Amino acid sequence: MLEIVFISTLNGVLYGMLLFLMASGLTVIFSMMGVLNFAHASFYMLGAFFGFEISRHVGFFPGLVIAPVLVGLIGMAVERYGLRQVHRHGHVAELLFTFGLTFIIQEVVQMVWGKLAVDYKVPPALDFPAFTLFATEYPAFKIFMLAISIAIFAVLLLIVKRTRVGLVVQAALSHPDMVGMLGHNVGRVFMLVFGVGAGLAAVAGVIAGPALVTQANMAAALGPILFVIVVVGGLGSLSGAFVASLLIGLIQTFAVAVNVSLADILGDTQMAETLSVWFSDIWSVTVAQIAPILPYLLLVLILIFRPRGLMGNRES
Amino acid sequence: MIASDTTSELPSARRRSFLATYGVWIALAVVLVALPYVLNSGLAISTMCLMGIMIIFSLSYNMLLGQTGLLSFGHAVFFGLGGFLTAHAMNIVRVTGAPLPLEVFPIIGGLTGLLFGVIFGAVATRRAGTAFAMITLGIGELVASSSLILRSAFGGEEGISVDRTRVLQMFGISFGPQIQVYFLIAAWLFLSVAAMYALTRTPFGRICNAVRDNPVRASFIGYNTTTVRFLSFSMAGLFAGVAGGLAALNFEIVTSSAMGAAQSGTVVLMAYIGGVGNFAGPIIGAILVTYLQVMLSDVTGAWQLYFGLLFIGIVMFVPDGIAGLVARQQPVLVSGRLHKVLPRYLTALLPGLLALAGLSMLIEMTYQLTVNAPEGPAMSFLYVPFDASSPLPWLIAAAMLAVGLWLFLKAGRLALEAYGDAVEAARGNVR
């Protein structure tokens, strides 16, 4: 039991940190530009596939740097030549532009790398068990993933809190118009933030690719979860996104580890038997089976009881 | 709660003749009846059945996006749930032998859509804008993933099958042949389109537009914007459910993919490509997108890429969609300068087509070398056979794209100038 709790906590925090790598970029882009970037998960996927391709030729570690830079440049190009063009048609058009982009990126990835999962391997230098706990070997690569995401988190925090660029970004979060009026090149800040956001998502892709499955549907599977995080945390709140990422990471990992259904809980009483006839479908479903829908349930519950999100302070 | 006197006519509107008011509808009815006799192949009729269903679906979506300004990414939920409940109702009727003819079953789908529209609308319409979009996305994912868990209600991967010929038959119509189903769909299509159009002309429809354009002002003059959004959301659910019920009758099977993210995405594409600012837009979009889905998927394996590019192109350059593009030509007709503008359009169109051919050749060659790699590099494009692994075709394609694009931009500027002149002239005429 203790083993499950410990391993699941570790995995949950890891997954949560990965989610935050993506959700942070998404939140900052949304707060500054008012654009919910639908294609954010697609940048994550591009990162994973670029990382895979580079790891085949040069090795994993160069890919960890090159792939995010490439994806960041693509992100900047998308902002400069796509979003800025669409901006004058309003927010709906911007949102739909990124929505269309997900189609194109998915199709291109399918064309180049195929529909099946590619063989993105953990680099040999990190392919050993880091420690053994209660007879479970914990892979070193996961510790590496955790270290990378925490390091990036720390660097981001330093940049946002301690540098001039961070100050502008912070100001633009709450008062984008005022920042522009104070003479900052808001367009360039937007492009930079979009590129950095895309690059961060790509980092997540490069390090998550070998551990999870690198496949052309990975963006479609992850995208909605990111939006849940952004809404649950509160639109435009970076700390909210952090809390929500960890929350969802932990909920999903713990749910997968719990193999209990309603039938197990209520046992063989008389009442249980009548109920089982009525609720035949959900009677034998285990918590592990409903793990994929838990984030969405959380979303609906949050909206009913706290529409602003956990730490949000603006309505829309 | 919405009771106001907005029926006062605009000063210029005179009492219109019977034909001017109902002519479009009579024409629509005639076209719907005549179509299967003109295009009478099996493929054409089944495609038209699908188009009819999709027209209802995308019009119901436009009640949200176009008329109330709500961008929903989970609209297929109502389509799918309507389909599932219709399928279950048909199976129950078959077992119990209840006297319900097939013609009324889409109502069950519609009521299901309405019911779930009320339930989900109560949650989703508390917020507007981007938050609303994300909530509908979440609800869509919630329902779609739940449907795979609740096996007895949704049939798991196989879905729920029905037999449309096994319910009460009226007037000896068995609904075995597809053409009979076509007329059933056409009748429901006519009813739904008329009802949705009528709804846009009511005070409620106008208030929806007000909430879309300026929610703050709408609430200042005493309307609860949340309630308006909620009502609009529920109504959209109703018509999406009708479309889902018709789909269940048409395909005789409903699977959980009917309410998946792909289906929700398709309806966004249909409405937006057609044009959300115009009532006819989603109709055009549904016909075009369905046609492309059926026909293009036979021609090329990369059809979804073309689809994405078409959508991005529309979003970037023609944000009011095809219907908006057509509607913008009205001043050209008014000013009587069509003979001046049309040649300019054609000179822009030719290099545009050249660029398109170049782009599509590049895509097809990439496709041949990656996805179709086992079949070797030999391929043909526009009936010209060549070898995709040699550099020459790539150079030709790139040159076609570059030259076509350059000429298109030049000719496009001239065409826009001619259009601008025509609009100026039209304004002068009005004055």
How many angstroms separate the termini of chain B?
41 Å
Radius of gyration of chain B: 24 Å
Mean pLDDT of chain A: 82
The total tally of domains of chain B equals 2
Strand percentage of chain A = under 5%
Principal-axes geometry of chain A comes out as: globular
Strand order in space, largest sheet of chain A: 1-2
Largest sheet of chain B: 2 strands, antiparallel
Work out the number of β strands of chain A: 2
String of helices and strands of chain B: HHHHHHEHHHHEHHHHHHEEH
Class by helix and strand content of chain B?
A: mainly alpha
What structural category characterises the helix and strand content of chain A?
mainly alpha
Tell me how many strands of chain B there are. Answer: 4
Oligomer: heterodimer
Summarize the biggest pleated sheet of chain A: 2 strands, antiparallel
Helix content of chain A: over 70%
Characterise the protein shown here.
The complex is a heterodimer of chains A (316) and B (431). Chain A is mainly α. Chain A has a domain of 219 residues. In chain A, strands 1-2 form a two-stranded antiparallel sheet. Chain A has 15 helices and 2 strands. The radius of gyration of chain A is 21 Å and the shape is globular. Chain B is mainly alpha-helical. Chain B folds into 2 domains: 244 residues, no CATH class; 101 residues, no CATH class. Helix content of chain B is 73%, strand content 3%. Chain B has 17 helices and 4 strands. In chain B, a hairpin with a 2-residue loop joins strand 3 and strand 4. In chain B, helix 4 packs antiparallel against helix 10 and helix 11 packs across helix 12. The longest helix of chain B has 40 residues. Chain B is globular, with a radius of gyration of 24 Å. The N terminus of chain B is likely disordered. The chains are: A mainly alpha (316), B mainly alpha (431). The interface between A and B is large, with 50 and 46 residues.
